TrEMBL record:
Signal peptide positions on this chain: none
Family: Belongs to the GSP F family.
Type II secretion system protein GspF domain mapped to chain residues: 15-129, 211-333
Compartment(s) where it occurs, according to its Swiss-Prot or TrEMBL record: Cell membrane
Name of this chain's protein: Type II secretion system F family protein
Xref: PANTHER family: GENERAL SECRETION PATHWAY PROTEIN, TYPE II SECRETION SYSTEM PROTEIN F-RELATED
Primary location group: membrane
InterPro entries: GspF/PilC (IPR003004), T2SS_GspF_dom (IPR018076), T2SS_GspF_sf (IPR042094), T4P_ComGB (IPR047692)
Membrane topology: Multi-pass membrane protein
Gene3D superfamilies the record matches: Type II secretion system (T2SS), domain F
Length: 341
């Protein structure tokens, strides 16, 4: 099996930053790749050579990036910058996206590893109590002709419900929902995500940022709005934005302003239409979109960080509550037995 050239997004980020640095110093893309391969591992060196060979044979720069594990949004950012703008800007923006994603994944791993460890410990505790402790309590109280405390009876009833057949049924339902969701079109998936209160805000921020960040550099590099939308329709690496560019182009042909078309679409933050309207009034839509996309980028990752920050105490609190209930359900029968003596 061929070893991957990069282990994680941070290594991809650093590679893009080094390539950006060489291009900024005046080296050509081909020569920069030859220089970079000298500082890579064996797998990274082979990958750099494949990128160089692809460029020499006339292929687009983005195709080898897919083999390097670069995400679709990063490839899209670099591709549009390479084809219609400044490749260096695309590289630095792609590096920033990868850095943020890596930091977020590391923070998520650190924050969720402890709750996940507690959760598996809780499952072991539940298994021991349901198979070893509660059956003895039930047999003992039945032989004494007494009822278990209501909390213990409730816990025993719940644990008897979550047996293997029920768990398999729940797993099958969840798996079926995932398959059903993945078979829907991207627009249908996004429509469903926008209906979920927790994910609605994050989804809108994500879509608004990528729409603004793709359209802004095209307008700033002298393309008209119609030309920019046509480029997105034909060359965006994300199918959703291809469809959106086509739909917005139809609105423009029907006499709508860009701000009016955006306002009528449910996928974007409400501020996007206002920012575009302000840019239309000043004749600087590209500049306003670029400024707004930078704000959205920071806001988007702040929302994800807050979501992670909230999830840890919620998970720990939920696990703690379940442990407390299990403890009380086990201790109450013991107290009743002691009182009976």
């Amino acid at each position: 099996m061929r070893k991957k050239p990069f282990r994680n997004d941070m290594e991809r980020c650093e590679w893009l930053e080094r390539l950006h640095s060489l291009l900024s110093e005046g080296y050509s893309l081909s020569y920069s790749l030859l220089m970079l391969k000298e500082f890579e591992t064996e797998s990274g060196r082979r990958w750099c050579e494949s990128v160089y060979d692809a460029l020499q044979s006339g292929e687009e720069f983005i195709y080898p990036l897919r083999e390097g594990g670069f995400s679709k949004e990063v490839i899209n950012c670099i591709f549009l910058a390479d084809k219609y703008g400044d490749l260096r800007e695309g590289l630095i923006q792609g590096a920033l996206i990868l850095k943020k994603k890596y930091e977020l994944s590391q923070k998520g791993r650190k924050m969720l590893s402890y709750p996940i460890f507690l959760f598996f410990g809780l499952l072991i505790m539940i298994g021991i109590m349901s198979e070893g402790v509660f059956p003895h309590f039930t047999m003992f109280f039945d032989s004494m002709g007494q009822d278990l405390p209501w909390l213990t009876k409730l816990v025993v009833s719940l644990l008897s419900f979550f047996q293997l057949p029920v768990l398999l049924l729940i797993f099958t339902i969840v798996l079926g929902v995932i398959i059903w969701f993945r078979r829907k079109t991207l627009n249908e998936q996004l429509t469903l995500l926008l209906k979920l209160p927790i994910l609605r805000s994050v989804t809108k921020s994500f879509l608004t940022y990528y729409f603004a960040s793709q359209l802004a550099p095209l307008l700033e590099n002298g393309f008209s709005l119609h030309q920019s939308l046509l480029i997105l329709k034909e060359h965006s690496q994300i199918s959703f934005f291809q469809n959106e560019a086509d739909a917005i182009s139809n609105d423009l042909r029907n006499g709508f302003l860009l701000s009016e078309s955006i306002r009528n679409r449910p996928y974007y933050e409400v501020q996007l239409a206002s920012v575009i309207a302000f840019g239309e009034a000043k004749g600087s839509v590209g500049k306003e979109l670029e400024r707004f996309s930078n704000i959205l980028f920071n806001r988007f990752y702040e929302k994800l960080q807050k979501l992670l920050s909230v999830s840890q105490p919620v998970l720990i609190g939920g696990i703690g509550f379940i442990v407390m209930v299990l403890f009380l359900s086990m201790m109450l029968p013991i107290f009743n037995i002691v009182d009976g003596w």
